[in-house]
Amino acid sequence: MSLLEIRPIAHPASREQVPHQHAQGQLFTVKSGVVSIEAGGGRWLMPTGCIGWVPPYEAHGAHMHGSMAGMSLYFTETWSRASMPAALKVVRLSPLLAALLDTLARAEPPAGPAREHYLAVFADDFTRQPAQTLFLPMPQEPRLLRMAAALLATPDDNTGLDGWAGRIGMARRTLTRRFQADTGWSLTQWRQQLRMLTAMERLAAGESVTAVALGLGYTSVSSFIALFRRYTGMTPRAYLAAGRD
Q: Which CATH architecture has domain 3-128?
């Protein structure tokens, strides 16, 4: 039996899950709310309509931002390693994936060879889906990691490259080159991604658009709304409405 357990998830308020690992592969969906996952040297954001995969023995923690609902499915290590991606992956919940999940989670799901067939189709479609870009890689160099951790704690910090180079005791050119090598992004790109992910988390937790914009260091609410729309394809209010559907 490849599928071991299906467990509904429902949390009425923000909740944090300590980092842990398990032998089973885990799929989890977000039907409402926002979840952020920390694993594999980075941070993933899962808004409504996403599904994530955590391979066996992958250390991971989660933070539910505000109320959320979803579902977790646990699979044997053998099936997980043979059929699913070897690394953590987050994708949009396609119509096919959603239909397969509904079938597997119904009161009288398919059993035996029929269920294995459903799972094979699910694994194939999940693997083919493009990974979501709601990911924030973390640098590995100790001084850069301290800088990134400080920015995670205070995303409104507008300290520039020269300021950070002085604070962590690293030449500006070295900081720029090493940060790009560690993360694949410039510090400016990384900081924008951090702020957008943080904005989604804070909006889901119930903060107003104005509070989020000013709390993230934007000079005006309108500039934040414009950037959020370019980044996500919708305004913050539309994003919130979509998360409640």
A: Sandwich (2.60)
Q: Are 179 and 139 in contact (CB under 8 A)?
A: yes
| CB atoms near residue 96 (< 10 Å) | 14
Give me 169's structure tokens: 């005791």
Q: How far apart are CA 18 and CA 198, in angstroms?
A: 19
Sequence spans of domains, the chain: 3-128, 138-244
Query: What are the angstrom distances between the C-alpha of 184 and each of 32, 135, 137, 189, 212?
Result: 31, 12, 8, 10, 27
Tokens of 74: 């646990």
Cβ contact 51:98 at 8 Å: no
pTM beyond 0.90: the answer is no
171-211 pLDDT, tens digit per residue, is: 999 999 999 999 999 999 999 999 998 998 888 888 899 99
| Single-letter residue type at 115 | R
CA-CA distance, 55 to 84, in Å (whole number)?
Answer: 8
Domain 138-244 fold is Arc Repressor Mutant, subunit A (1.10.10)
